[in-house]
Amino acid sequence: MRVFIADDEPLVLLGFQRMVTAIGHEVVGTAANGREAIEKILDLQPDIVLMDVNLPETDGLTAIETVQKLFQIPAIVITGFQDPGIAERIAAAGIFGFLQKPVGEYEIRSALSIAAARHAEQKAAVEQRDQAITKLSERKLVERAKGLLMDQFGIGDEDAMKFLQRKSRNENKKLVSVAQDLLRKSDLLR
Question: pTM of the prediction?
């Protein structure tokens, strides 16, 4: 994976870079503050982000929330502080993982793997939802076209569907395109 890392402590940042590289991932960029992290993440569009919560200029959670408004990217936050309110902000920001410093190679490997898997699941679910919405919309258009044919020509549901299917085959168009054309022509005649 292409990993972006943000931490304001140079030695800690270097340690994270070495661990990420050691487990076989590519570090595509780093930042020492939240503002710089936002700019670089938007420019580089990495596969995943490791981000310290407590960054200067813009904190890590705000930086991730800003990026998430423009494109979805799995993010893992890291902190050395124990703040009871941080868990609520992390959950609200759609973060895919949380690590408490000090962090070792095993924790980084596990967090990256889990975050990537959860992000892939979320992406697949969104795609399935979008496909279902599209299919429903297309089905509604076909039903409207069938209703139009039934009203104008006094034919039954089955005959209207056969007409649309035949026209679809003859014109080598998708059924929904034939339905759209028919509805468009009907609107023009009114």
Answer: 0.73
